[in-house]
Structure prediction request, 999 residues.
Amino acid sequence: MADITVYLCKCFGEIAATVDLEIVRAGLGDNPSVSSAEIVDSLCLNRDLETMAHQIREGVTQKVLIAACSSLARGDRIVRGLVHRGVRRTDIHLVDIREGCAWIHAGDPDGATGKAERLIDMGLAHLENVQTSDDVSVKINNEVMVIGAGPAGLAAATSLARSGITVHVIERAPHPGGMLRLVSRLYPKDSAASSRLEPYLDELERNPLITVYPRAKLQSIRGYTGNYKIRLSSGDDEHNLSPGAVIIASGAKVLLPDGLFRYGEVANVISQMELETRFRKGAVATKNAVFIQCVGARCQDRPYCSTICCPASIKNAARLKAENPVANVFVIHRDIMMPGSVLEGYYRHVMAQGVRFIRCEKDRPPEIIGTDRIEAVSVYDAVTGSTRTIDADLAVLSTPLIPNDDNRRIAELLGLQLDRYGFFREIYPMHPVETRMDGVFICGSARWPVSSDVAITQGEAAAMKAAALLARSQAAASDFSRVPGRKFGHARVNVETCSGCGNCMAVCPFDAIRLQKVEGKYSHVSRVNKMRCKACGNCVSVCPNGTMQMPEHNYLSVGEMIRRAF
Amino acid sequence: MLEQTRNLARRILEEKQANGILGLAQGEFNIIQPRIFSEPAELEYLVLEPKWPLAKMAMRILRSVPEGYTLAVVCRGCDERAIYELIKRNQIAREKILTIGIACSTAQASACLCERPYPSHLDVGEASAGVNPFEDETVRSLLQGDDAVRMARWAKVLKRCIKCYGCRNSCPICICEPCKLEDPVWVKTGSIPAEMLAFHLIRAFHLSDTCVACGACQEACPVGIPLLSLQLSMRKALQDKYMYEAGIDPAKKSPVLADFFDEPETDRDVPAWVNSLRENHGA
Amino acid sequence: METETTRQPRILVFACRWCGLIGADGAGKNRIALPSNFRIIPVECAAYVEPDAIIRALASGIDGTIVMGCHVGGCRFNDANHAAIKRLELLKELLDATGVGRDRLLISFGTAHEDHQFAEVIRDYFDTVAALPPLEPWVSTLTMKHLSRS
Prediction:
């Protein structure tokens, strides 16, 4: 059926100089699908868009193929201009004959013209066979579940509640607070951790929109953006929640220095967290204290820097020095990480107070000397090039934050990605608190080791993003994509031909497929959750008989494109 | 071995462990055909030869039996593997099937080029060592040499194909209705021999991680195409890279369908396929 | 006159919209000269590329195929590209066993998202495919409607 109009753009000569558009147009004359082919000087100057849109709206032509520059150049803008003027997206197809043809084959005009003809024919194949995914509209529940009640989770919860959104905070421990309960004071102002925690705890109590579930265990997470279905237990109680969004603020855990620097073998070789615990109980007495940085970090197993251990050690070193003015306090490091003017200033201040810094090398770590208790630390000073032995009655090992053990389980349940270390991955680079699952946000140390003030900032950011999502009471499945307005479609099952083999379900990276019993069929049949489906195409590739298709890129289209390619 | 199998089958029926036994029966005029034995007395007609994969038949039978029916199936190694694959693909409900495992002899294993001529649940007979199919002459000649040589040899055998679909029909794993091989978008219709690349490679690839090496395809082929050899390299690759073999564990899905997380530790954490050009050609 | 053995190889590229296509676009913007006998089919993700489509392409007179995707760990669809790699590598085993040649499918993930990288992949692949024995015995009838002029 001749219902496609082809527009060939000269691009003011950029394309026409290499591709002979007259030949191309002439070739299209015999094509049964093409109603007319026109050559225009330049499509991006808008004056033709109105005519094109008008023709489609009036039914003069059904579909339009645009042969012009690439979508990344002006092509996208042309397409959007047409959509804006009321044309359905799947009735438009853009073929790149500039970046993809004229500009890379400038020395071969014959080849370029032939290639342009083939590319346009492939585009016609697409338009002849393209189908449109049906959409679905869902209600967005005005509730959020925050996993974790540490600084990040608390900041998120209170921000959301202040915006009038109901928040459910689930916390593994018996009390909220996370790291703020375990740490004594916070850098750089040396304020008590409790002073940062208390206002949040107050608000948790006072604000009726916030409910806290202590001793919580997540049983299952199903559902989709706008309507997640959560089952959890809190102590002995069971709860079912239906939040519209989920914020993961589950934090991280501290690596225990087992097997490193004779920890556990020799008394008074302690971890940083243990030092914090001692500080919470009162002043810590010492005559010779040594901090060792990068213990179990920046090594083969964990090549990353955990960012918070240098500021934490320096804060604690300063405190030891303040509480024991005549003590010798050393910090043995490979590099000192104190980014920003405030932390840098703090570092210099602490140096001026008499805390001494020794730089060592990765391949020559310090050694703990002592039999039952620590007596000294021997270290190769990389700056002076000599080995020194320092008396010590206390060694503090700075270890990194590592991902929680259940990150993987949560990632599988929610269709999230973890990075190679096991932290939740955001959408890099421009969406720091968002994940591939719309409606699931990450903040705090669950995402990457951070201090509590940064965790709070990120928690508030995640709350903001969640609030923006919840601002609509309804949304369509097609709204959710990383590039707004351009979700590609979603997979469609042919119920008649499905054998229920479950390949699609096994391979879906977003866990968007389930098998369902259907009337009149002996086997189950696949069903796609249109909200969760992101149109990646994995299911289509493993379906043995073409039951699963992506309507906008179905096998009829692909088969025809292959046939017309050469 | 035959008497033992018959006795075991009788006992299963008498003790009501199953409602019927699926096996081969030698009946009038010595014609052998599959049969559901529902009474212990009928089992005098049970025979174990020739090899005939019953998995697909069991699947179809189980679709139309009443609720609560259990079917026992006389299984060689390949039958059991096929049943496990069909269980994985939700075509057979595990609780509805019972296997009577019988072992194949060394001679039978050699005839089928079978590496594993016994089921994991073995009831009758002794497990004999399998054979290595890569040591077979025909297999070696097909997989040896450089690309052009191999291509020529395969083209020679595949040219005989008359598109009878015997391979697909007899394969115990091929259950799709409709089948892609009959779709003109994928395989040209109306010509013989079948489009060599399209027909045979699409069929072979669809079975890549699920072929149980029963050899039914090869036996069914009226023009003697060595179809089993098409699958061998892929089976070996799955074994080497992922320690996976089809039909061994009904709970273990193919690595092609499994997540990053579920892959076995094989001394490579991320596959080195990032740039196969550089890797293969030092570009 | 163009004969089977002297013509330029025909290459079909499946490029994912997020990586491979960016490289192709970059090559265009920088006017990098490339041989003209290749076509690109854009896909959302390399996971879209059915192995059957590769087989169909090779059965239709195409000499080599490339699948371009994002590097492992960089797929916006939760490592769907990793699943694609596993499938396609298995297909290469079959292509190898039958003599069609494992080089007729090039898997290039993550290398082609810059212009010169894309160009390098294309140029090198033309050389690779040109060195392969012709697929003629296998393609029983050429189902191409048109042949490229070059």
User: Anything to note?
Assistant: Chain A has four domains: 4-129, 143-253+402-475, 256-399, 492-549.
